[in-house]
Design brief:
Layout (H helix, E strand, L loop, with lengths): L9 E4 L9 E6 L2 E5 L37 H13 L7 E6 L1 H12 L6 E5 L4 E2 L2 E2 L11 H7 L8 E3 L5 E3 L7 E3 L4 E3 L9 E2 L11 E7 L8 H11 L3 E7 L15 H9 L7 H10 L5 H12 L14 H4 L6 E4 L26 E2 L24 H19 L1
Parallel strand pairs: 1-3, 4-5, 5-13, 13-14
Antiparallel strand pairs: 2-3, 2-4, 6-12, 7-16, 8-11, 9-10, 14-15
């Protein structure tokens, strides 16, 4: 959290947690309070937080947001209750994570969108069934239980043959059999009930700010960022997609951008963005465009050595571009507390090292579902319409009663 010192007076770690576990940030009076959650490592890749609904997200169940859907729901709810009980500013609650942790940040933010301002997704986005990229735990292609049982084999629908192997073998998803001649077993656990993962961002009237940051040579996440951006825009959220390329000595890959917390605080608007005059002072400070030079000038900003700058203001987009220059898509023309920036009418697809999209010829590389299988189809469950109808009926009952 050292990078966040520019924007905070104090960092208070309330619970020790490993770096890959997500954090909740509640920023009030320039203080950041962080809480972490741990649990049994029974998720894909040994992840310790349970995603909802066995990983099966589709049109009929796009937002599984109840205590029955995930063991973590009560913990998140309790944390948000604690924030309220402490008298902290509930309008400044943000979720942040990287990789699978930021997928969980998306789940938590969508389910509690009425109590969360926004989220940062580093190295992730939205996984789509029958689409690449395929995330390491095969989420969206397999249910959580099938992956835990069959491993990577859950995503294959082809037959495997074992020829003249006079030994006992136990391939994934096959019965333990003694094989003396040509034999085969079918691995057909591709999730035909799935459409997305970890959740579809339908939040009704409660809209989120979602900052989505990925490197173009991130072969795990590049492309999923675009899927999430599209879904967020479709649902009326304020989506901000940052596509970074490896350059200037920055390797990129599956990682957050350099000067990570400057990007997080600057993009989300956790504190007010620096003024135009401060931005000009900062740009004058920069001798060259580089990660290290940005960090140097940021220290001057923090120490109050830059003219016209308020200590603690968040770097503007132009200031951050002197560290790294991503391709930027802004659905609402906003970045941090800045408004009036260029609105992205047609989002630019990330120039990923590995192309992304629907499976070609029925195969997604290391995922080969049975012929004819694809994402789940069906009528979309519009829970927002149901919610509005319920509110309308309650209003009528109250008026009739009184």
């Amino acid at each position: 959290m050292s990078q966040s010192a520019l924007f905070t007076k104090q960092y208070v770690p309330l619970v020790n947690c490993r770096p890959w576990q997500y954090l909740i940030h509640s920023v009030v009076s320039l203080y950041i309070h962080s809480l972490g959650s741990t649990g049994p490592k029974d998720g894909g890749g040994g992840f310790g937080l349970e995603f909802p609904a066995n990983g099966i997200i589709n049109a009929s169940n796009p937002t599984p947001c109840t205590k029955e859907d995930s063991r973590e729901y009560g913990y998140i709810e309790g944390t948000l209750d604690l924030i309220a009980e402490l008298g902290l500013d509930a309008s400044k609650v943000y979720f942040e994570g990287f990789s699978q942790s930021s997928m969980f940040a998306a789940y938590a933010s969508v389910c509690f969108a009425d109590r969360v301002a926004g989220l940062w997704q580093g190295g992730s986005g939205l996984a789509k069934t029958y689409h690449t990229p395929i995330v390491p735990g095969f989420q969206a292609q397999c249910s959580a239980s099938d992956y835990n049982t069959y491993g990577n084999s859950c995503c294959e629908g082809k037959k495997q043959s074992f020829l003249f192997l006079p030994t006992r073998v136990t391939p994934h998803a096959c019965t333990d059999v003694l094989v003396f001649s040509s034999s085969s077993c079918r691995k057909d656990n591709f999730c035909t009930d799935c459409t997305w993962w970890p959740i579809y961002p339908r939040t009704c009237e409660n809209k989120l700010v979602d900052c989505i940051a990925t490197y173009t040579n991130d072969n795990i996440a590049c492309g999923s960022d675009f899927y999430m951006y599209e879904a967020m825009v479709a649902e009326g959220h304020d989506a901000r997609m940052l596509s970074f390329s490896p350059t200037n000595g920055v390797a990129g890959g599956h990682s957050n951008p350099q000067n990570t917390y400057s990007w997080i605080v600057g993009c989300l608007g956790i504190v007010d963005s620096c003024s135009e005059s401060c931005e000009a002072s900062f740009l004058s400070c920069m001798q060259t465009t580089s990660v290290a030079e940005f960090a140097r000038c940021e220290i001057e900003l923090k120490n109050g050595d830059l003219a016209d700058c308020e200590i603690g203001c968040a770097p503007t987009l132009e200031m951050l571009k002197t560290s790294q220059t991503p391709v930027v898509n802004l659905s609402n023309g906003k970045f941090g507390s800045q408004e009036g920036l260029d609105v992205t009418e047609s989002p630019q697809r990330p120039n990923c090292s590995n192309d992304f999209g629907p499976f070609l010829d029925g195969s997604g590389g290391n995922c080969s579902p049975p012929a004819g299988d694809g994402p789940a189809s069906g009528a979309y469950h519009n829970r927002c319409a149901v919610s509005l109808l319920s509110s309308f009926l309650v209003t009528i009952l109250i008026r009739c009663y009184w």
